User: Fold this.
Amino acid sequence: MRGVQRYWCERAWLGGEAAEPGVLVSVEGDRFAAVEPAVASPPAGSTRLEGLVLPGFANAHSHAFHRVLRGRTQRGRGSFWSWRERMYEVAAALDPDSYRRLARAVFAEMALAGITAVGEFHYLHHGPGGAPYEDPNAMGKALIAAASDAGIRITLLDTCYLHGGIGEEPGETQRRFSDGDAERWGERAAALEASENARIGAAVHSVRAVDPEAIAVVAAWAHERNCPLHAHLSEQPAENEACEQAYGVSPTQLLADNGALGPGFTAVHATHLSGTDIGLLGGARCCCCFCPTTERDLADGIGPARELIDAGASLSLGSDSHAVIDPLEEARAVELDERLATNERGRHEAPALLEAATAAGHAAIGWPEAGRIEPGAIADLVSVRLDSVRTAGAEARRALARGFL
Ligand SMILES: [Zn+2]
Assistant:
C-alpha cells in the first residue's frame, strides 16, 4: 500500500478569486486525499513547494507532428493554406518509430510547461499512399507510448478524415489520413484501448474532410462510448463559404444537424461564427477550444470567446501546432487579442482563464476528475516561481495591496 505524501504550498490556487496562503495538500496514490488552507508553516515530514502552486494544465488541442514546422514557416507571404502544404510534407515523412520519438520530445516540452494531459487530435493513421500498417493503429499507439514516455496523460482523439475538401478525393498525403469511410474509421478506432494514462476519444477533422452522413456516424460512435468528440470549426472564412455553397448552412449548423453538438463536444478554433452559430454552441453547452498562439501564427483571426461564454459555452485552450508551448501564454492571449479587437480591457478575468487552462480543459478531453486541487481529484501540482526575472514584482504587488508600500 502506498503511503500518504504531504506537500505544503507557500501559496496555492484552489479555484477562487485569488491564491490561498499556506495550503497543506495530502496525496494518496494518484489522488488528493485532503486539502487544508491556512496552515501557517510546513509540518514535519512535508515537502515545501514555493511560489504559486496551480493544478496541472490541460492542452486540449494538439497535433504533435506540427512541432517540426516551428521556425520553418516564417519567411515570405502566405496564408493558412500555404502553411498547410508545408505541414503535409512533414506528415509524408513520418513512420511509427519516428513519430514516437518526435512526439516524446513534444510531450516532454509540454510536461516542462506544466501540462499534465494532452488531447491529441490524431489523423496521421496510415502508411504512404494510405496503406494500413500491420497494426492499423500503429501511429496512434506510438502517440500513446510517447505520452507515457514523457510522463503525461493523453486522450487520443482518433480523427475521421475522408475527403480532400467538400466533394473531393483525398490528395497524395491526405490518403494517409483516410480510412475510406466512416464505418471503417469506427472499426479501426474501436480497437484502441484505454489504460491508466490514456483514454480514447473521437474527432471529426472538419466539415471540409468529413461529409454530413459520416459526421453522424462519428457522433453516434462518441455518444455510444460517452467519450469526447472534437472538431475543427470555422477556422477560416473559406471553410464557411464552401460549406454554405455545398449544404446551404454554416459548419456549426451542419454539425448540429448531424448530432455532434452537446456537452461532450469541443469546437476547436470557432473563429468565424455568426450570432446563430454562437447561440447553437452556447445553447448546447459545448466547449470551445481556442488556440491563440497558432491562430495568430496562421493569420486565422480572433474568435468570439466572450460571446461564446456569455451564450453558455465553456472555454479550453490548446497549443495546436506548437509554434509555442506555454498554456499561460494561450490564456493571456485570449484576453489580449480581444483587447486589440474591441478596445476594451478586462473581458476575461484571470481566474476564468486559469479555469480554461485547467479544469475545463481536462473535462473537454475526458478527464473531468483532473485540473482542480481538491479531495478526490487527480493529484497534479504545478509550481510557478515568483522570484524569477519574469515574475519579479509579484511579491511587491501583494505588499502594495496591503498598504505596505
Ligand atoms: Zn488543429
